[in-house]
Amino acid sequence: MRTNSGLTLMELMVTIGVMAILASIAIPNFVAWLPNYRLRSGAEEIHSTLQLARVRAVRQNTTATVTFNTANETYQATVGGQIFRNGQMPAGIDINTAVFGGGAFVQFDSRGVTINNTDGSAQVRNNLGRTQTITVSITGNARIN
């Protein structure tokens, strides 16, 4: 007795056709989802850097600064004059604005509050025009709006 194993050409063609139809539905949805994912990712990077700078200022009993450069979409965090994080926004994400008191930087003192009681925000924008705002209160708490 002989057994047949494997796929026929017809079965293979039907499988490839079904996969092509599913891919044609999934790929446009993925492409539309990606800029929003990158926007959220960029906002979360800035938020975590602000929180880390605040914690390090308290732990090391010194001043921590996070400086934003809107021209090249970067930020830099220092504590006690030493750089501990350089950040670059994901592709297609811009640092739209960064306004904290008198400039594009925020400083935390050794108690974790902002220096000179200044609050402010940084706003990131994707290539679809959607934005996320990261605010810092005078108490040093950062949150994503």
> Compute the gyration radius: what is it?
24 Å
Number of domains as seen in the coordinates? 1
Estimate percent helicity. Answer: 25-40%
Give the full name of the CATH homologous superfamily: minor pseudopilin epsh domain
Q: Any idea what the shape is?
A: elongated
Uncertain regions spanning at least 5 consecutive residues: none
- Oligomer description: single chain
The CATH class, by name, is Alpha Beta
Would you list the SSEs in sequence order as H and E? HEEEEEEEE
The DSSP helix count reads: 1
Mean pLDDT: 92
* Known CATH architecture: 3-Layer(bab) Sandwich
How is the biggest beta sheet arranged? 4 strands, antiparallel
Measure the end-to-end span: 70 Å
Helix/strand class: alpha+beta
Percent in strands:
25-35%
Gist of the model:
The protein is of the alpha+beta class. The protein has one helix at 9-60, and strands at residues 64-69, 74-79, 82-88, 93-100, 105-108, 120-126, 131-136, 142-144. The chain is elongated.
